[in-house]
Amino acid sequence: MSNTAWETLSNQAVATAGIVYFLALVVYLAEWASLRQPAADRELVGVGGGAEPAASAAAPAAGAPAARTAFLGRLGILLTALACAAHFVALVGRGMAADPNRVPWGNMYEFTLSGTFVVALLYVVLYKKFALGWMGPLVVGFVVATLMVAVIWLYDAVAPLTEALNSPWLVIHVISAVIATGAFTLGGIASVMYLVRMRAERRAAAAERPLSRWLDRVPQLDALDRLAYRVHAFAFPVWTFAVLITGPIWAHEAWSRYWNWDPKEVWAFITWVVYAGYLHARATAGWKGRKAALLALVGVATLWFNFIGINYFSTTSQHAYAAERIVP
């Protein structure tokens, strides 16, 4: 295949992935909608004695919605996995379209494709282990929105790597940074849902009414808090390896200095400090729940500002991913 054919394949694969991700989002939302349970059925739950015949009569009627919900859940994760596969083809096509062939991390568009791919891939891989079915519409919605931004505003034609990027350290540094970014994003989603559910539970308790039906799918607060902590605990050493080890080594190779006070370097270190504070506060000060969730959101905000924002708000960064702005 020619380079042009590979680039066309990549663009078509991105479009396909976007469409399938969107279909998965629709299915996930339909799954959430199917979880709606009439109040009369809820009142039958846990009722004994004379209510047993009524409960038994309601059981067949409840079976069909439960089966539909399960089917939609399976369909949603299947579509997400298919979209993830198309997403991978898009990344391979970008790399093969360059002359010479290279890793697909030459500009901001390609970095965004890689980051969203890792978010989706981690969700699919961890789906069963951590029972992440409730996270489907949030993850897929994030991926769809970010891909739209990438295609509409960040797209750049395939080009050879600049001298500063043409290094084996590109692979090591970027793989670790992208994996950490994907994991931190999942941890941020869990933290957001912790705050949402906590507020909803307080309002429901004050009004003496059941929790909103769509939040019934979200795990309990302690489970959300534990999930967020585990994901952040995995991502932090990977980010440390990317920011404090491979990054400085690559900087010394490219610019003869381990640290240049470049805006992206500074913000990457700020992100590291925030997440270090998050883990330290949990381990020593016993920070859990709301405080930890808020600190995690500060971390994910600095992370994505560093990932995208620096390239548009800084005119001096040597890490700008637009090829013409990279200064070797």
TrEMBL record:
Instruction: Tell me the membrane topology, using the record's own terms.
Output: Multi-pass membrane protein
On whether Transcription regulation is a keyword of this UniProt record, the answer is: no
Which InterPro entries does UniProt cross-reference here? Cyt_c_assembly (IPR002541), Cyt_c_biogenesis_CcsA (IPR017562), Cyt_c_biogenesis_CcsA/CcmC (IPR045062)
Where is the protein situated, by its record's location annotation?
Answer: Membrane
Q: Which residues cross the membrane?
A: 12-30, 75-96, 108-127, 134-155, 170-196, 227-251, 266-285, 292-313
Domain Cytochrome c assembly protein intervals:
105-314
Q: A Pfam family for this UniProt protein?
A: Cytochrom_C_asm
Q: Does the keyword Transmembrane helix apply?
A: yes
Q: Which UniProt keywords apply?
A: Cytochrome c-type biogenesis, Membrane, Transmembrane, Transmembrane helix
In its UniProt entry, what is this protein called? Cytochrome c assembly protein domain-containing protein
Lineage runs: Bacteria, Bacillati, Actinomycetota, Actinomycetes, Propionibacteriales
